[in-house]
Each structure stands twice: as C-alpha cells, then as structure tokens.
C-alpha cells in the first residue's frame, strides 16, 4: 500500500520540522513538501497532489482558511483532505475551517499520536474533530441565536434524500461509524458506505464533518435529540 502523502503548511520553520520528525517515523506516512504561507500551500498542493494537507490557520499573506477554501473548490477529483491545526482555541476559526472545506480540525496542544491518527482518519475519507471541538459544535447549535452565519449545503437538496439516506444522515450526525450504522440499520458496511457517499453527493458536502454541520443547521437532528 502506498504511503499517505502529506504536505506541511505552517509559517514557523521549527513547527514544520517538528511535524516532519513526528510523521516520518511512521511507515505509512511520507512528507512530500513544506509551505510557509497559504499561497505556496495552494500551489504546492496543485503540483504535488498530496493526500493530506496539514494546514496552519494563521499565516502571513494568504491564511490557512483561504488556502483551504481554494484547495477545496479546485475541480480536481480525489483532491486532498485538509487537516487544520491552530494554537488558538477560537470558535470563529473552527466554523470558518469547516465552511472552507476542512476535513478535520485539531489544536496544536494535542499529542503526536493524536496527530498521526488524525492524518490517517482524514486520508481514508472520514472527517475528524477533536472531542472537545465536537462538543462545542453541538453546544453552538443548541443556542440558535449564536449559530454561525451561512449554510453548509442546500435546503432543497435535503428533499432529494430517500428515507434510508435520511436515516443514515441522522446517524452520521450523531457520530456513528459505518460499522455502528450497519449494526443499527441491519445493513452491510459496504451498503452503508454507499449510502453515506450518496448523501454527501446529493447534499454537495465534502465529508462527514460537513454532514454533521448540515444536519444541525437544517434541523435534521437537534442537540439532545
């Protein structure tokens, strides 16, 4: 199996070096390049076609949020997953990253093991949020007046889901894995994977993280429900 190809984007050379040291001891991960700003990260992503871009939020010139938005909107099939990292524990960064198309969001105070695991998760097409950030997303949607502006996905697209696909969306929004959804709905995991793919395609969503945001924004699920 080919290694997961990772591009590092951070304006601090020591941070990039630290990430490289952590990642290159893993047999299934290869660091293919480094970028010190968002503009270079976009250009190197288009040139190198990594599987995962490890993206800092705050960088000079084009920041990581705008770079993520440009990478996510490129019309390239099978494009890279963007895993955002930041030192700053701020809700506006979290929601902006999700809306920009990030597949995951982690704080830099995590462990090396958590970083490696996160790269593997987003590389296989799943979305990822640190547990404390997932709780914050749900808490924010529990306060309607505090919800971040703008919608992920289309309200009209929701009507295109079959009853089964809607069931799958509800379970995805609850954080269930494909195996858990399969057990709950008495389906095979391959069938569940197909359902999830169709849900994302119909709703115009990139991954499961955006599916969670969509489900809460459009009232498909509610905190505590």
UniProtKB/TrEMBL annotation:
Transcription regulation keyword on record: yes
GO BP of this protein: phosphorelay signal transduction system; regulation of DNA-templated transcription
Entry-linked InterPro entries: CheY-like_superfamily (IPR011006), NreC/VraR/RcsB-like_REC (IPR058245), Sig_transdc_resp-reg_C-effctor (IPR016032), Sig_transdc_resp-reg_receiver (IPR001789), Tscrpt_reg_LuxR_C (IPR000792), WalR-like (IPR039420)
Post-translational modification 4-aspartylphosphate, affected residues: 56
Alphabetically ordered keywords of this record: DNA-binding, Phosphoprotein, Transcription, Transcription regulation
Chain ranges passing through the membrane: none
Start and end residues of each HTH luxR-type domain: 154-219
Domain called Response regulatory: residue spans: 5-123
Single GO term (MF): DNA binding
Classification via SMART domains: HTH_LUXR, REC
Protein name per UniProt: Response regulator transcription factor
Organism: Verrucosispora sioxanthis
């Amino acid at each position: 199996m080919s290694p997961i190809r990772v591009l590092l984007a951070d304006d601090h050379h020591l941070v990039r070096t630290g990430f490289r040291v952590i990642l290159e001891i893993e047999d299934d991960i290869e660091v293919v390049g480094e970028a010190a700003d968002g503009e270079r990260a976009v250009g190197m992503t288009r040139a190198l076609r990594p599987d995962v871009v490890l993206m800092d939020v705050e960088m000079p010139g084009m920041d990581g949020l705008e770079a993520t938005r440009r990478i996510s909107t490129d019309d390239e099939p099978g494009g890279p997953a963007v895993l955002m990292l930041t030192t700053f524990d701020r809700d506006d960064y979290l929601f902006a990253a999700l809306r920009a198309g990030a597949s995951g969001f982690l704080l830099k105070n995590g462990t090396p093991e958590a970083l490696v695991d996160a790269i593997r998760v987003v590389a296989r097409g799943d979305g990822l949020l640190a547990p404390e950030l997932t709780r914050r997303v749900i808490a924010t949607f529990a306060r309607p007046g505090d919800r971040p502006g703008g919608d992920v996905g289309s309200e009209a697209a929701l009507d295109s889901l079959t009853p089964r696909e809607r069931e799958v969306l509800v379970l995805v929004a609850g954080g269930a894995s494909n195996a858990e959804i399969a057990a709950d709905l008495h389906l095979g995991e391959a069938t569940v994977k197909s359902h999830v793919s169709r849900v994302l395609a119909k709703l115009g969503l990139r991954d499961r993280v955006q599916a969670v945001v969509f489900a809460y924004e459009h009232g498909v699920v509610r905190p505590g429900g």
